[in-house]
Design a protein that fits this description.
By secondary structure, the protein is mainly alpha-helical. The protein has helices at about 5-25, 30-40, 50-60, 60-75, 95-120, 120-135; strands at about 50, 80, 90-95. It has a three-stranded antiparallel β-sheet. Helix 1 packs across helix 5 (about 95-120), helix 3 (about 50-60) packs across helix 4 and helix 5 packs across helix 6 (about 120-135). The radius of gyration is 17 Å and the shape is globular.
């Protein structure tokens, strides 16, 4: 259905792109939302980040980020721990399994990126990304 509403059009396009990336990442057992969180959590060993920092980096509400992290933890992809300085502070780091998913998923994600770029055309894909960053 054609519409002049930017939001409706973006939401429909997002659903289609999400499905494409989810299918690409299926072999490593994560969806694109989980993939995005894992990428944001990729840090040197021993440098975990807090749930609030993850929420800030992903532009999610803290409660949403925490809920999504618990799913990753349930799948063994991240480890939650406390801070030595503040026991109330929950810190997150990737497990070996999480690192493996990132390593194995990287070529799958790049292939999905190439497919989207081909679908849109190189210059249009770059322009779209630029326009979306401006929002």
């Amino acid at each position: 259905m054609d519409t002049e509403c930017y939001c409706t059009t973006l939401r429909a396009a997002t659903r289609r792109l999400t499905a494409r990336y989810d299918a690409a990442l299926e072999p490593v057992g994560v969806n694109v939302a989980q993939w995005g969180l894992l990428r944001k959590l990729a840090r040197p060993p021993g440098e975990p980040i807090s749930i609030q920092e993850l929420a800030d980096r992903t532009e999610l509400e803290r409660s949403t980020a925490a809920r999504n992290v618990r799913v990753l933890e349930k799948h063994g992809l991240v480890r939650l721990g406390g801070s030595a300085g503040d026991r109330r502070l929950a810190l997150i780091e990737l497990t070996e399994q999480g690192l493996a998913v990132l390593h194995l998923g990287e070529p799958l994600w790049h292939q999905a990126q190439r497919e989207v770029q081909t679908l849109l055309g190189g210059d249009q894909a770059i322009e779209l990304r630029s326009l979306l960053h401006a929002v």
